[in-house]
Automatic annotation (TrEMBL):
This is TerB family tellurite resistance protein. Gene3D superfamilies: TerB-like. Residues 25-141 form the Co-chaperone DjlA N-terminal domain.
Length: 148
């Protein structure tokens, strides 16, 4: 199952089709894990926040979200470099959903109440690669900071 999922997520197609719902959820979760791991301090607060974000985004319970995160951690470890990884998501996920992903990334980054420059740089990089404007990213960050 794990290898089949990797193949579905990371096989580049000339005419990419939208990801199946569960595959998209895991790809998004893997991207959130990647941002959380970028500062080498992937901790319980960040994992808990990822679970909460996934549960809210996808209308699932925390146990199901934790299970998705667990799979996403394995996927993230096997995923190609960030440029190729984000291209696959950009080609298969709507702009509205990509903006929501950036908002979720800001939530994860700020979950430990520590602003790490490496996480912020990673979010800015991913935003650009996903085709999300700096303005939309900043609005998402402001929403997260204002709601904390």
């Amino acid at each position: 199952m794990f290898r089949n999922l990797l193949s579905r997520l990371f096989t580049e197609e000339p005419d990419p089709k939208p990801l199946a719902t569960e595959d998209a959820e895991i790809a998004v979760a893997a991207l959130l894990v990647r941002v959380a791991r970028v500062d080498d301090h992937y901790n319980a607060a960040e994992k808990r926040r990822i679970d909460e974000v996934l549960a809210r985004m996808h209308g699932m319970g925390l146990a199901d979200a934790a299970e998705r995160r667990s799979v996403a951690e394995m996927i993230e470890a096997e995923a190609p470099d960030t440029v190729r990884f984000t291209r696959l998501i950009k080609d298969r996920v709507s702009l509205e959903d990509r903006i929501a992903i950036i908002g979720a990334m800001w939530e994860i980054s700020l979950a430990d109440n520590h602003r790490a420059a490496s996480e912020e740089m990673a979010i800015r990089l991913v935003s650009g690669l996903l085709g999300v404007t700096d303005r939309d990213s900043a609005l998402q960050r402001q929403r997260v900071v204002g709601g904390s």
